[in-house]
Amino acid sequence: MKSYLGMSLAACVLIACAAETPDKPSTVADTIYSGGPILTMDEKQPRADAVAVKDGRIIAVGSAADIAEHKGSGTEVFDLMGRAMVPGFVDSHGHVVFGGLQALSANLLPSPDGEVTDIASLKRALKQWAEENAEAVAATNMIIGFGYDNAQLKELRHPTRADLDEVALDVPVLIVHQSGHLGVANSKALELAGINKDSKPPAGGVIQRGENGEPNGVLEEYAFFSVLAPLLGQLGDEGLVAFARAGSKLWAQFGYTTGQDGRSSKAAFKALQKAAADGDIPIDVVAFPDVLEGRDFIKQSVSREYVDNVRVGGCKLTIDGSPQGFTALRDRPYYDPVGNYPEGYKGYAAINQEQLQEAVNWCFEHGLQILVHSNGEGASDMLIAAFRNAREKYGDPGNRPVLVHGQFQREDQVDSFKELGVFQSVFPMHTYYWGDWHREHTVGPEVAENISPTGWIRQRGLMFGTHHDAPVALPNSMRVLDATVNRRTRSGYILGPDQRVDVETALKAMTIWPAWQHLEENEKGSIEVGKLADFVVLSEDPTAIAPEELAELKVVQTIKEGIVIFEARPGEPSARLQYAPFSSNPEAAHHVLHSLSADATVH
Length: 603
Fold this sequence. Notes:
It is built from 22 helices and 24 strands. By secondary structure, the protein is α/β, with parallel strands linked by helices. The two termini are 29 Å apart.
């Protein structure tokens, strides 16, 4: 860093003192960025000293002397001060609107993102949140918490309705598992949802029960969604708009200039549109509505063009659930599942093969991109069969189908996805958050080595994307980078060293490759002439530090089309999330979202 600071000063002086170019709109830059390492993700020019931007687009990339020619009387010189600049991060898979729920509910996450360690601390967190946000609880008639993880609780079990009844008896209490695929309801919430001893679980869902046959409050997959949706519906349209605002600004804090709203709904997309029209969505957001629920809406709305920073990109489909929650569909029994599971339990699919094939065919027939959530080997077997049949029937419509997660893959399945032209959006953060859990309980030590098999993918010369799946985890870009490069678990074990990749490859999986995934590689993902001026300024050059230090890097600034949309406060270059309540008052909700972080400014 010391050696670069000298070059930083020289570059900035050269540009600042350069003779001003006559004001020619085609050549004079609005802003010139220099004074730090610039990693372009462009293989023809991997690094640059300076970048010139005009009207939100890059007009020149190169040496300080070359870029100085674009300095005019009104050009701003943006001094990187020795810090690194990379392309804006492109979200390979996440849930921007649901991420707003994470930002506006009780924080039940374990370390390092929260402080819940056991059932007692979970109950304390819910009670404290309810007390501090009494007006919001009264307005919404709901206490909601996000992010508990039974794998990280001291008791190694899910909380139950009895536990949540100790938080409140007369108000519905619902807590969402960190995976987003299951949750727990108190007695009041179960009552309002009409779930009792005689209730039958919906297709693709499970109602867990106690010894007396009564629901114990734990709901899986579609049984959980059937309770969550009506409760969130109580928030009304403005509630979803608040979620959209909060989620998009949370993404910006971690350097994402393009976000994704996977498995979106018509109501969620309308909320994004409303917030965007009000100027409250600082990043681009591409939505993928559920193909089983909104086909007419998808056909009417899908577009390659953004309107006020939002668009519908295609379809989302979900085959199975969460591996850490034992709801992903495997091709063999789980290794040592924690809970009341029958002998030989393999998980289950949320849909059947006929539903899967019909949905995939519909997307291929209409040339629509489809993103498919598949975690277990059994689910991927189903997906490979469906894609193969669709390709035989429709050929290649150029829709770039995407596998989302693919946690437990056999190596032959990686070959099949390559043969079928399927882009893989994988989830290496699992190696940190649940790597030890996978080794000990879900798949065992041998199979766990190859979770999120980025090494296998690169051996075959393929691109891939990496994601955070927020709100499953915070959209912490530096932890995504760290996990992809290091694959270090919470206990310090290196999970699958052969699946690790180098830093530059990991950065491509966060920039140019997911831009290709979204069919936006000509606009985003690298610092090249003609592309949007979407950048992230990092506290240090990720290629110049020890790999084990990657998670400590900070997002200092996020720049969207030449405008700073997030900036860490001086002296504290950290994007630390602070949770805040939803308010039924739109003005108050708007204020909450503009003050999400006490340590950072979101523009």
